[in-house]
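Recap from last week: sequence in, structure out.
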Amino acid sequence: MLMEINLYGILNLIPTLLALVKASALITSIANIILLIGMLYVYVERYLKVKSKFTTTLVLFASLFLVQNILFSVYFVFNPPATIINALLPLIFLGLEFTALALLLMITRE
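Predicted C-alpha cells:
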C-alpha cells in the first residue's frame, strides 16, 4: 500500500517535470535578458564617461545579444518545444550563454 502511494506520487510528478524541462529554455532566455540589461546599463554608464570605440563596441555587443534573446523568448512563447529532445539543445545553448554572460557581468562590475 505504501509503495503504491509513493509510486502514484512519482507518476504525478513526471508530467510537471516534463513541462518544466520544456519551459526551461524560455526561463533561461529571460534570465539572459536580465543579465544583458545589467551589462548594458554598466556599458552605457562607462560609455558616457569614456566615449571610446571599445565602450561603443561593448554597448553594441550587449544590445545585439539582448535582441537575440528577446527573439528567442518570443519564439519559445509561440513555438514551445513539442518533445524534451527538442527542448534540450536550446537549453544547453542558452545555459552556456547564461554562464558566460554571468561571468562577464561579474568581471564588468569590478
